[in-house]
Amino acid sequence: MTVHIPHPDLPPPSSSVGVPGWLRRNLFSSPLNSLFTLLAVYVLYQLTPPLINWAFLDANWVGNTKEACTNDGACWVFIRVRFTQFMFGFYPPSEYWRAILAFLLLGALILYLLIDGLPKKAWVAGFTILGYPIAAYCLFYGGWFGLPVVETYKWGA
Q: Is residue 101 situated within a structural domain?
């Protein structure tokens, strides 16, 4: 009488698991998907180098006016010159701390909600959805707790 000893299971072929398997299932699952994938790679290959040249390599980074933009690339000079206007609009400079505090509070609330294992997340989520907008409005507009009023037309650029 012969005893049959089963062989251990063989691992799946390397072409069906991991990155090759994902590529085969998602990007090359049919001739049409393969064509679209290759077309997208070609478009990215054609667009990425000129975009990098324009945005970074040929860009103008230093100066104080648009006359400093002499290269054919992007003109990033105005970002540095107008940075506070992009961030705060026409909000009074003496009150920037209010906008910064409001955004730091929002960041802290989101961070709290993203960290696993912290207690009372439902309460924090409820405050984030219902209470934070009121607190942010009070900070931005003012008129409470001795904060000067900043009219809404000064909030945006």
A: yes
Per the CB < 8 A criterion, the answer to whether 98 and 142 are in contact is yes
Residue numbers of the domain that contains 28: 16-58
Say if 7 falls within a structural domain: no
The pTM score is: 0.64
Query: How many distinct structural domains can be found in the chain?
Result: 2
Are residue 98 and residue 43 in the same domain, yes or no?
A: no
Q: Residue-wise pLDDT tens for the chain (157 aa)?
A: 678 887 778 777 777 778 888 999 999 999 999 999 999 999 999 999 999 999 999 999 988 888 888 888 999 998 888 899 999 999 999 999 999 999 999 999 999 999 999 999 999 999 999 999 999 999 999 999 999 999 999 987 5
